[in-house]
Design a protein that fits this description.
The protein is about 70% helix and about 0% strand. The protein is an all-alpha fold.
């Protein structure tokens, strides 16, 4: 079974469980997929990859907003800003990975591997 076939099965399972598309296929995951990455729906992704994918987009956007409205005016050292960006992205990613893991358990979703059989 190809990755796309398994992904379609996963989406069908999520739809049957009543999980909305905004949760099963968020915009940043669709963007990563268009860039050629094989990203599973986050309910079926590993905890650490979910952390990475969520933190990867959130950290830089948060940093841009902080730099525009706060850090630039205060004269924040770019190294401190970069460290804060990484920490913020990591925390957000960990929280989102926990939310998706909890949702997977709550809805009794199968494993990614079992979708191929």
């Amino acid at each position: 079974m190809t990755f796309d076939e398994r992904r379609q099965r996963a989406i069908a399972v999520l739809n049957r469980k009543g999980i909305p598309q905004a949760s099963s296929e968020p915009a940043h995951i669709r963007l990563f997929r268009r860039l050629g990455m094989q990203v599973r729906p986050l309910h079926f992704e590993t905890f650490w990859r979910t952390t990475f994918f969520c933190g990867l987009w959130f950290g830089p956007i948060w940093a841009l907003i902080m730099w525009t409205f706060n850090w630039r005016k205060e004269g924040t050292d770019p190294a401190i800003a970069a460290l804060a960006t990484v920490i913020c992205g990591l925390i957000y990613g960990l929280v989102m990975a926990s939310v998706f893991a909890w949702s997977k358990k709550k809805h009794g979703l199968p494993t990614w591997e079992s979708l191929g059989s």
